[in-house]
Specification:
By secondary structure, the protein is an all-beta fold. It has no helices and eleven strands.
Length: 113
Amino acid sequence: QVRVVESGGGLVQAGGSLRLSCATSGRTFGDYDGNWFRQAPGKEREFVARISVDGRNTNYADSVKGRFTISRDNAKNTLYLQMNSLKPDDTAIYYCNIAKVYWGQGIQVTVSS
C-alpha cells in the first residue's frame, strides 16, 4: 500500500506560480511512475503530467506544456509539480497519482483573474 498526500495548493492570481508536493509512504516510491491529474468543476478528471521512475522522461497535457514542470526526489519519496504562468482555466482540484493505482485526496488550486 502507498499513502499519498498532496500539499502546496491555494489561491493565486493569474500569471502567478505554485508548487505542489506529493509526499508518499509505504512501498518504494522509486519503483513507480508518478502522475498529476486535475478535475475542474463540472468536468471530468484529466491528465496533467507524468514522470518516469528515473525522472528522465516526462509527458504533459498540451494545455500545460511549457508552463508546468513535473519532477521527483526519490530519496525523499516526493513528487512535485511546479506551475508557472497560471491561468484561471487551471483552477481545479489537483491529484497526485502513483503507478495509476494510488491516489491522493486532492488539493485545491484556484487562479483568480
